[in-house]
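Our consortium's second objective concerns turning raw sequence data into structural hypotheses that experimental partners can test. To show how far this objective has progressed, the report includes one record in full. It was chosen at random from the queue rather than selected for favorable results. The single chain below, 496 residues long, was entered without modification.
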Amino acid sequence: MKSKIDGKIIAGLGLAVGILLLTAAASFWSIRGLSIQTKRVEHTYQVMQQVTNVTAVLKDAQAGVRGYLLTGDTLYLRPFSLASGMLPASLEHLDKLTADNTTQQARLDSLRALVEQEFRILRPLTDMNKSMNKAAMQTLLDTDRQTLRQVRLLYDRIQQEEMALLAQRSAVQDVFEKATPIVVLVSAVLAVLIVVWLIIKIVKELADNRRLQDELAEVNQQISRRIAQIRSLAEQVVQGDYTVKISDEADDNLGGLAISLNRMTQTLESSFSALEKRNQELDQFAYVASHDLKAPLRGVTTIVKWIEEELSAELSPQLRTYLAQMKGRLSRLEDLINGLLAYARVGRTAHSVSTVDVSQLLSEVAELVVPPDFTLHLGPNLPVFPTNRLGLQQVFTNLLSNAVKYHHRGAGHLEVTCADAGRCYEFRVQDDGPGIAPEYHQKVFLLFQTLRDRNTAESTGIGLSIVQKLVNEHQGKIRIESAPGQGAAFIFTWPK
């Protein structure tokens, strides 16, 4: 709905702007045309006035010279002197005014030539120091009259040309004078109509928008209430209450989500009930394994020791070998039972958080699992932070004891470093042992998996499985960087 409203308003605004632009262009064209024609009429008047001035000044000069010849009074020569200074500038100004009219330019060239000729005629007559006979003076005066007659003829032609232009331009000016008010009035009326139409349209659209907003506000309130129910259900599920239900039967996406969540909580309730039952069974198994299995195992071990002690003189070397192998198998079986119990207990005990100094923790672990002939180097950036001390201690204990147990020399070098990885710390436990081939990097984390012969190393294959389970329980990851003959590095992340 919003897109339709926006489209209508945009289309209306576009149409209004287009019409306003057209009316503005028409008004501009009309006013500009009137201005241009007015300037042209004024230009014609200027040309006519300037030509009249030129001929008048020239006549005044001629009359002044004639008055001087009759009276001998030099005062009559003043118009001639003024004409000598004014006419060149006046002719130059006329030349610029008629620059767009080649016909008038040609006539002005002729007028300029006649003016120069007139000055050549009148100048000798004004020379007081020069004597001139009567015949020569009469000749000059006759020539002067003929020149002035040609000037008048040329003046008439120029005036006729300008009058014709004046009539033409005045007619066009009249058209623009009549059209301009009409165009401006029509443009104003159209602008008012467009503004009124736009106001009506916008008011209507705003009313529709307010109605839609009210409807949307009501829908949002309903959706917010239903989402709050879903959020409440999620919070209760997080707290362990899987019996909660949502009473929302609306036929929409949220209603469908409510039905799905109800089914999910029902399934979770069933699954967690089954899981709790399995955990109880696992607890029972751990009890049986720790008591019922270990008790007869110790009994068999004791019997083997009695045989060795009471019948030592009657035992053959071969039988002693068999008894030694039996003791080794019984010891390995006890280690397997203890390892299974440790693996089963991971994640089943509550995590107690305390401030842990990792450097101090590693020193305590090293005293227990790192032999004196091994060297352990601790990095400079080992943190002090609140975490599950027991879990982190188990991880370091298993990794360091594993590095010692599988080292191929009598002594070795171990190193533990740490790097800040944002929300967690990344620990690196490095050794200089025989290394692990890439194809075994994932296999070593499986239960009961070991890379050596079970008869040559006291290993149950559970230690690294416990490490991986502990790291995963704390939302971390563990990986191996190693190659045969280059030592092994176990890198794991631990949340801050």
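The partners drew two points from this record. The two ends are 50 Å apart (CA to CA). The beta strands are 353-357, 375-378, 384-388, 413-420, 424-431, 478-482, 488-495. Both points have been shared with the crystallography group to help prioritize constructs.
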